[in-house]
Amino acid sequence: MIFARINGINMHLRVSGAADSRVVVLSNSLGTDARIWDAVIERLSDRYRVISYDQRGHGLSDAPSAPYKLDDHVADLEGLADLLGLAEFALAGVSVGGLIAQGFALRNAHRLKALILCDTAARIGDDATWNSRIAAIRANGIGSISDAIMARWFGPQFRAEHAADYAGWRNMLERSPVEGYIGTCAALRDADLRGQVGSIGLRTLVVVGEHDQSTPPEVVRATAQLLPDAQFEIMAGVGHIPSIEQPERLVELMLNYFHEVGYV
Ligand SMILES: O=C(O)CC1=CCC(=O)O1
């Protein structure tokens, strides 16, 4: 566990794997933290140096006052890469983490060797949905909307078969810092990269869960179609966070893709 000052805030980072291995950086989704990647890290870190972090406003990183901008999140990732001296690496992000990854790729093409976008899009939701989520949380807290969010993250089968896990991930969501959560909702509300992602000149793996209700397959497919060179995969039986529901399959897709782009 590492804590580091980046862009004036204390950020929480984790590093696994050998120092001389190729690097993979992982970015979390809204209302979660780096722990959603644990089962992926376990399976990748014998071959790669894997760096995960809690975005500003999430996990053990500081939660400055809302609102945030997508550029704040991208700048944090740039600061993290500078701090760790990462000249080139692979980047994977889920949901807002994937939006941050797209923003990072647009500003730092020279640094990226591979890009994996999970359950994300160049535009997620719209102004009205984010504003009403922000208002509901300001009025009544995250707990007042956590049922609806959990239902978008996980399908009924996961909930039925993994009741303890479901309850644990709900704890993570409900314990999110309110300023951090709202700050990132504002970043999501204001971010629209649809006009820009066509210039990401890197072959990209785009993955979505079949049952994702936050960024459904057709939304994610539309972003994949904006990219010049994307491999689009739908993961059967999975919702919004494939690193939790099917880490084995996600890692298999990532390793095949790394092989294809020569990042081995
Ligand atoms: O909370 C949700 O609806 C899912 C989500 C949207 C953006 C993100 O990062 O997670």
TrEMBL record:
<dbReference type="InterPro" id="IPR050228">
    <property type="entry name" value="Carboxylesterase_BioH"/>
</dbReference>
<keyword id="KW-0378">Hydrolase</keyword>
<dbReference type="InterPro" id="IPR026968">
    <property type="entry name" value="PcaD/CatD"/>
</dbReference>
<dbReference type="GO" id="GO:0047570">
    <property type="term" value="F:3-oxoadipate enol-lactonase activity"/>
</dbReference>
<dbReference type="InterPro" id="IPR000073">
    <property type="entry name" value="AB_hydrolase_1"/>
</dbReference>
<dbReference type="InterPro" id="IPR029058">
    <property type="entry name" value="AB_hydrolase_fold"/>
</dbReference>
<dbReference type="Pfam" id="PF00561">
    <property type="entry name" value="Abhydrolase_1"/>
</dbReference>
<dbReference type="GO" id="GO:0042952">
    <property type="term" value="P:beta-ketoadipate pathway"/>
</dbReference>
<protein>
    <submittedName>
        <fullName>3-oxoadipate enol-lactonase</fullName>
        <ecNumber>3.1.1.24</ecNumber>
    </submittedName>
</protein>
<feature type="domain" description="AB hydrolase-1">
    <location>
        <begin position="23"/>
        <end position="246"/>
    </location>
</feature>
